[in-house]
Amino acid sequence: xxxxxxxxxxxxxxxxxVLLDEGGKLYNxxxxxxxxxxxxxxxxxxxVFVIGGAYGFHNDVKVRSNxxxxxxxxxxxxxxxxxxxxxxxxxxxxxxxxxxxxxx
Length: 104
Description:
Blueprint: H1 2-10, E1 16-26, H2 29-42, E2 47-51, H3 59-64, E3 67-70, H4 78-96
Parallel strand pairs: 1-2, 1-3
Helix pairs in contact: 2-4
């Protein structure tokens, strides 16, 4: 519960909160880029991605979230997911800008 309290304390009331959770919606890189673009265009406050600890999210954090997103059906440590997520976010930005980083 302590981790959940810390997460909730860091979230502002109007934030759009997305939990990175193995049970969330799974996208390929191109579809994730489209999803990110829609979120940037459709929300007025901050888009907040939350990575849970080893035992997942406290129920209060789940209730506060707006959406769940999966990076893979496999399980990764939360340390590894940080790197994987940042790379996918970077990839999404390059896809949206038509830069040559991503190869379809």
